[in-house]
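A student in our group prepared the protein record below, which I am reviewing. Here is the record exactly as it was handed to me.
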Amino acid sequence: MQSKHAYILALLAGAAALLFVLGILITIDLVRYAEPYLSGQSAKIQASDAPQAPKLITKLEGNQANIVEVDAAGVVIRTIYSSEIKDHVASFSLFAVPQLSYSGKAYVESVQDADGSTLIVYPLDVETGTLSAAVLNVPSVRSTLSPDQSRVAVISPGPNKNLTVYDLATGALLSSWTLANDEWLTAGKTTRYTGDGVQWTNNNCFDHPVWNASGTETRSFCVVTPSTP
């Protein structure tokens, strides 16, 4: 009888040990699965799933200005959008392809309006090749994209001496600066802008020379982002 009881106890002990080992293995798997979310790596995982921006260029062919997608070697994969060239000027040309926040849209500008000191930018659906209503329509003598091509710094024409930054996805005005009356963006105190545009140092800030009666300085301008509560 005692040997029978010992045998039963041994079986129970073995079963308990097996359950213990299985519990440890299950716990390890659960921790491994949950670790990215516990450690904050989930943001990295989500970011890696974001669509990669294609390489697009404007290619002139005959009387057509084609916005095309090319591979790493520069070989055309497909044509996204075509516009007619009139009086040696294309209707539209590629303006921006956001690199870090690509959502299937590129942006094109109206070439003729750009020649008339106006920046008009239209979203282009890369998949369907269709244009949407203009997201930007602002006076401009020079526009410069941020490094990730999600923002554009615009220098306004005339005596206003304004520098303004817009978000391309929404067209929202992010920040604007107006120089003092005794300051200029171009040497010679002229109201006609002759510079090369701003020099972005990152996606939030850029530099530009500013002249005054004492000489010139390179001034930094940064987009003010709202603080999160």
The radius of gyration is 29 Å.
